Structure formats: structure tokens, C-alpha cells
Amino acid sequence: MNKKTLVLTESQYHEIIDTLKSGFAGCRPNIRVATVLVIETNLGLRISDILQLKLSNIIRDGERYRLDIVEQKTGKQRTFTVPQAIYNHIKIYSLENSIKPHEVIFPIGERAVQKQLKVVCDYLGFAGISTHSFRKFFATRIYNNSDHNIILVQKLLQHSSPAVTQRYIGIQSKELEQAIEQHICLR
Description:
Blueprint: H1 10-22, H2 31-43, H3 47-50, E1 58-61, E2 64-70, E3 77-82, H4 84-96, H5 110-124, H6 132-145, H7 150-157, H8 162-169, H9 171-183
Antiparallel strand pairs: 1-2, 2-3
């Protein structure tokens, strides 16, 4: 866990993805890296797992799609539903780039993704952001949109305990600060 890696704000996420897609003076658009980071944001997978992803890893299961992978970092089997919109996004990207179902969708290294992200973040004036910021953004959004269900986020990230997840998304310190702030009694 990289404690120095910040959680993205929604605004930063959109600015980074838009800039990757459009490019800027001295830097061409990079749809591949933008798509990698969009997938990380929407599925919460680690960058190492996304870069190993094949379309054949996503299996039709009745009306749904399911992703079956073994996580690179933990060696754990991971199976979960992939929303239709995300599957379609990946499928369209694969078709537009002539990627066959059993080929790696993103034939790029982790360092290349980090390097391109750093160029964009430097251009935008963002510090402390890495690819891991997108996974933390996923976790934080799920946490906030699920009435602060830390167990749900823990299971989605496959963390060993809720305490690990709390440290991961930095909610413990926020809640402590809020509790102290709300407790102020100066009279």
C-alpha cells in the first residue's frame, strides 16, 4: 500500500482522462492509457491485473458478464460481475484496435502507464497521483455511495480486514477529524 498516493477527486479524474484522450502541446493523445485508467476506476482492479486482462477473461453468464482472474499481487482467484457498460467499453476498444479475444487487451508495461500519467499530471499541476490513485478513487466512491459500507469495499478490494480498507482509503483520519470538529464546545 502506497500511503503517499492520493485519492483522486472527481474533477481530477475527468481532467486526467480528458487530457489523455485529447493530448496537449508536446504530448499526443493516448487512448490506451486513458482506457486502462478508466477500467481501473470502474472495476477497482490493480494496474497489474488490468495489463494482463484479455477479453476472454470476461465470460457471459446469462444476462450478465463475469470477470474471472487470478490477481497478480495476491494470487487470489477473483470472480465478479462486470457491468454491461464496462464490458461494452472494453469490447469496443478491442474491436477498434483489432485485439482478438485471447490477446492481452493492453500490451503496455506498468512503467509506461505511470510515465504517461506523470506527464499529464505534471502538465495539469497534480502531485501525489499514480495509477493506484484510480483504485483508491474507485474504493472511496463505492464507500461514499454505499452509506459508508466498509465491509462491501473490503470485499471488492479483497482486503484482509476492514481496518486495512479504512487505512487504504484514509477514512479513519477523516472520521476522527470530523468527530473532534463536531465535538467542539467552547463555553
